[in-house]
Amino acid sequence: MSDLTIVFISLSGNTLSFVKRLGLYLQENHGIGTRTINIKELKHETFPVDDNYVAILPTYLEGGNGLDSGNVEILTNPLGDFIKAHDNYKRCFGIIGSGNRNFNNQYCLTAKQYEQRFGFPMIGDFELRGTISDIERLAKVILERKAAFESQS
Question: What is the mean pLDDT of residues 20-41?
Fold first, then answer.
């Protein structure tokens, strides 16, 4: 299988930590290298992504409860802008959300909103920095979803 591209945004460092550990796990256990695109470092620049990729993002919402109020995305908007630009959403085979389960209905809500907005599936979630079990579980899902997506192309 070819290398894996991961497009993500990390604000507090939790998602960055997860992406780094996921990359190490994929290299050590599957011989797969990762190319990462950290949207935070781009300063609102966009460019076409030539590879199929998985997106990973945390949830930051403005107030409320995630049901009838407070489901407005804040801070992670540059990732949505990047995915939309140049039709990059067409190459995304899935999104993974992260968050804090203490926020109940808001947990991973941004990833669910991207799923609806762009039409690619939410393929998993993890809490905060994620555990090794999350990495193992999501690596399997990512590789299966990537293979299925590429066989359809």
Answer: 97
